[in-house]
Amino acid sequence: MTDNSNGSFGHSTLLDVDDGDGNQLLYLWIFAGFVGAALTSVLVVTTAYFAYTMKISVNIHDQMFQSIVRAPTKFFDTNPPGNVNFRTRFEFAVIPSAEQEWWRI
Fold this sequence. Notes:
This protein is mainly α. It has three helices and no strands.
């Protein structure tokens, strides 16, 4: 194997290949900038999604707790716990569809 001037032994690297105009390092930095921007945007969108879903979850649980605390005792005497549980689960099934509509905007 022969020793090249850049220290690699018979293997070309990205910086060894010349495209003729000498702007290879510039193109590499531009590409790195695009990759960095893409990663940053993914991080921002993921954080925004997490914050949004947590805010919705806290609001829903607060509203449910307030509704249960304010409900008269007669409500719990006339409705079996199974019916209340079923109704709550049914209403929670609506949340993912509303969330998908928000992201389509």
